Amino acid sequence: MPEGPQVARHARMQGERLIGRRLHADSPNGRSDDVAVLVDGLELVGIEAVGKHLLYDFGDERWLHVHLGRFGKFVAGDMPLREPQGVLRFRLFTDEVWYELRGAIAVEMYDAEARERLMGRIGPNPLDPDADPLAAYAKLAASRAPIGTLMMDQSVIGGIGNIYRSEVLFLNRVHPRTPSHLVPKKTWLAMWRDLERVMADGAKIGKIVTTWPKDREHPKGAVRAGERFYVYHRTGLPCRHCGALIVTATLANRSVFWCADDQIEIRADERDVLKRLGAKTSVAKGPERSRATATKAPTKPPARKAAARASAASRISKRAPLGR
Ligand SMILES: [Zn+2]
């Protein structure tokens, strides 16, 4: 499953071989014939990774937009082209090299307006040195949705994916269900620094590794397959830090993983919990809906809000981050 750093790596590696060249394109399965016709014969000016999106710049406000989705994949080879195998949506090639693209969820042409729309939709990207982590924090601070949900929202953080979500929450001992507005700014900035580090590594080596050598069974040499992550896909295995079991649940439609002991669950205050339960009941039972609406709890006074925030902040930041 491609995350931002792999997409950035595609941009860099394809850029080295394609920028400044006249490209050819075709669509062996016919699904992107219209796009192939437009791209074929154009000279590539640049390639840009925007979150998990790739934009091939052909000048004159023309871009090829590719989104790999969960299953998109590039395969590269030297010319000549090989016989298409299976479902092959799109190929880009020069006299020297070819790239086959399968499983992408978008292969389309963008004009300046479409590109602007995409840029406006994608939040700051930890791979971008100019990105502003506080812009993402502003969105967290304004939301009661679980931090594990907002972290999967590309409009909050660009380029992040499911593996980084679980791993960075673990490294900072934040439970995935913590209401976003209760995550202290200091903790968020530490999470951002971890994202910068692991995502930059990912873009460099083309593989996601979040464990520090000292936390691996084999600290020396190449990282072994089972030792790349702290919690991701380690359900039922012992935490590398404390030995408690790693657990999982579904959040934002994807599995999230955490340590049952290192990541404490911070809940919104009791009234919020009751309100949530009330909301659920009202959906299940028709007649209660109007009552629930009528007795809508007043907005929490600022003092209580600040107290809840301070208590969460101290509970989260008192526990030292892991892995450092
Ligand atoms: Zn643990």
Task: Report on this structure.
The chain is built from 10 helices and 10 strands. The protein is an alpha+beta fold. The protein has 2 domains: 4-121, N-terminal domain of MutM-like DNA repair proteins, CATH 3.20.190.10; 133-318, Helicase, Ruva Protein, domain 3 (Orthogonal Bundle). Strand 3 (53-57) and strand 4 (63-67) form a beta hairpin. The longest helix is centred in the middle third of the chain and has 21 residues, at 185-205. The two termini are 27 Å apart. The structure holds zinc ion. Zinc ion (ZN) is lined by residues 239, 241-242, 244, 259, 261-262.
The third-level CATH topology of the largest domain is: Helicase, Ruva Protein, domain 3
Count every helix, treating DSSP H or I runs of 4 or more residues as helices.
10
Q: What number of structural domains do the residues give?
A: 2
Major sheet description:
4 strands, antiparallel
Beta strand %: 15-25%
Record the strand order, biggest sheet.
1-6-7-5
The small molecules bound here are: zinc ion
Oligomer: single chain
Distance between the termini: 27 Å
- By helix and strand content, what is the structural category? alpha+beta
Q: Please, what is the average pLDDT?
A: 86
Order of helices and strands: HEHEEEEEEEHHHHHEEHHH
Q: What is the total tally of β strands?
A: 10
CATH class of the largest domain: Mainly Alpha
- Rg, alpha carbons: 23 Å
The CATH architecture of the largest domain can be named as Orthogonal Bundle
